[in-house]
Amino acid sequence: MSTVDTIRGRLDALPDVGLVVGFIGAIWAVMLVLAIAVGGANWANLAAGFVGSVTVLIGGYAILALALNLQWGYTGLFNIGIAGFMAVGAYTTAILTAPTDPAAGAVPGLGLPLWVGLIGGMVMAAIVGGLAALPALRLKADYLAIVTVAFSEIIRLIVNWDGLAEVSLFGVPVGTGGATGISFKSANDVASTLINGVGQPLVTAAEGVGVSGPNLANLTYGILLLLVVAASYWVLARITDSPFGRVLKAIREDETVTQSLGKDTRLFKIKTFMIGCALMGLAGVLFRGQAGYISPQQFRPTITFYVFAALIIGGSGSNTGSIVGAATFSGLLFYLPARLGENISLGGTRAPGNIVDAVAGFASLDPAPLLAYIISNVSTLRFVLIGVVLIYIIQNQPDGLLGHRNEPATSVSLDRPQSGSGGETDE
Amino acid sequence: MSEPEAAPRQETAVTSDAIESPLLEVDGLRKEFGGVVAVDGATFSVAEGSLTGLIGPNGAGKSTTFNCITGIHEPTGGRVTFDGQDITGLAPYTLANRGLVRTFQIARELSEMTVLENVMLAPGGQVGESVLRSVTPGLRSEVIKAEAAVRDRAWETLEFFEIDHLAHENAGNLSGGQRKLLEMARVLMTDPEMILLDEPLAGVNPTLEEKLLERIHELRREQGLTFLLVEHDMDVIMNNCEHIIVMHQGSVLAEGDAETITSDERVLEAYLGGDV
């Protein structure tokens, strides 16, 4: 029995909510153990920092993976422009909520409340997603992929362009800030206000054990993000467990057949694409714009491929799998190795400058140079690890951790109705 | 088998027989792929409530005709009328919603979905196909009610085709014959008036073939459905269809009941490869 089979067997036995909570709880426990092991007297503050950061990462990737799962996992729409749609959402929110009288050198915005900005960002991401999908949906799936990746890069280059850094729109000065980025009202401030207001006793208690204010705010923000994940999951589960979701699955399987059964598949595809892009836009603000500042650098195409990696690991086609995949990818493969590398030192061995020197140690049967090399370069080498895990999953468990589960798209139990209306047929 | 049929006119068999109440009329249908003319002015009609057979040697243009009627291909020329309305070039989903559905030559089950999901997909105008209704708390109760009704009907349909024991199985795990039954069950769930069957019996064992034909006759008898059947097995066509259309090289070669067709020399020549 392979390792993944064992893991899957255990995951299957749990109900979905328990599974997700347990999984994230386990990652928290790992972070706590690491903090206690390396933190010494400062362990509590370190633990709050680790757990807070990992929670923000899990939350951000979970929203993105859920959105991609709706588009790609359910409907087969190959969207490789995730970063671009995130940028549309984030920049729209930023422009709507940036103060009208910014600090010297910064770009002014419209100064609207944050909730208006968030809704505006989602709506704009949905509209741009719809526009991107419109010409491509008439063509084959591959063309949608090309169009989305092109859109994503065009968006990034537009927000990076100096010409739009600060312009006057109907006499109101607004802009993207160009390459220097834009500062705006961040959702993080909400978290800070929250804990400094109602959570004051919590802050005092946390400071008592040595947890710093910023770390506590970060942790609070992470938990708020998880609430957004829960809300997104609730909405998406209702969408997919319905006749609408059934049509999406059918489109993925065979679009011609779906059309022949009376479904206007183009309409379903555009709606789905817009909903997914709206969620990506939301993640763009809440995740990338956590600190109240965004720049074009944060919306490079690499993040698109991270989200695909997370969804493939978790199992495309499963909402629960999307979250588990996001947690595995961001927590265990992306965040954990970096923290391990920072905090583990190998006695007196100094890390060799290159891989040749590192491997040379084996000549004298001394693995220490290689280990030291790996540890000191772990933030680069973790991408090798991610690649290895992806190849292993695709070869051995192409459905991912949870994608194999049969999750029928319906809003009722599918058991045979008990009424004896029809005649008994066989058996 | 007792449909009143117009007297066969052997001399002018190419022109359409005067069918009393035609549900589907195809008039001068033409389809070109580049320089190849796949359908070249095919003209025929299908009587309401009939089981009409469409035969012809390979490459006669039967499947292309099917694809043109059901909106998979847009015809290059000609006219298709269904239930008195011009439906030429309409999209497949529009036709299905008007009651004209089809099955495919190679069964196209939605393999990663269960048999029950396949069948429950089909009914038209399901309230739960709206995102808003599926998500909004108050409106979802309506969706659930409609869904329960669809489920009950789906079970009944599966029982009718005797594949209810496979309901929770992924459709991809079904045997070839079971897939054909599933396709039939699926189109039936759309509440059709007319079903176009593209070689429904190809690769189906004799027992299953018997069962499928029985179901087709039962549906005609009890629900008044109309069938147009493409099939290579001559015996099946001759024994079951009261009206037969023979296509050859893209156009209709002969039309009439089994006797007329079997005694038509041009049909024999077309099948035996003589010059026509």
Automatic annotation (TrEMBL), chain A:
Protein keywords: Cell membrane, Membrane, Transmembrane, Transmembrane helix
PANTHER family registered for this protein in UniProt: HIGH-AFFINITY BRANCHED-CHAIN AMINO ACID TRANSPORT PROTEIN BRAE (PTHR30482:SF10), HIGH-AFFINITY BRANCHED-CHAIN AMINO ACID TRANSPORT SYSTEM PERMEASE (PTHR30482)
Listed GO MF terms: branched-chain amino acid transmembrane transporter activity
One GO CC term on file: plasma membrane
Listed Polar residues bias regions: 408-419
Region (Disordered): 405-427
Name assigned to this protein: High-affinity branched-chain amino acid transport protein
Pfam families in the cross-refs: BPD_transp_2
Membrane association type: Multi-pass membrane protein
TM stretches of this protein: 17-40, 46-70, 77-98, 110-134, 219-236, 273-291, 303-336, 370-394
Compartment annotation: Cell membrane
Membrane is among the record's keywords: yes
TrEMBL record, chain B:
Coiled coil: none
UniProt GO MF annotations: ATP binding; ATP hydrolysis activity
Domain ABC transporter: from-to ranges: 24-274
GO BP annotation list: amino acid transport
Keywords for this protein: Amino-acid transport, ATP-binding, Nucleotide-binding, Transport
GO cellular component: plasma membrane
Protein family according to the UniProt entry: Belongs to the ABC transporter superfamily.
PANTHER family: CONSERVED COMPONENT OF ABC TRANSPORTER FOR NATURAL AMINO ACIDS, CONSERVED COMPONENT OF ABC TRANSPORTER FOR NATURAL AMINO ACIDS-RELATED
Protein function: Probable component of a branched-chain amino-acid transport system.
Protein's recorded name: Probable branched-chain amino acid transport ATP-binding protein LivG
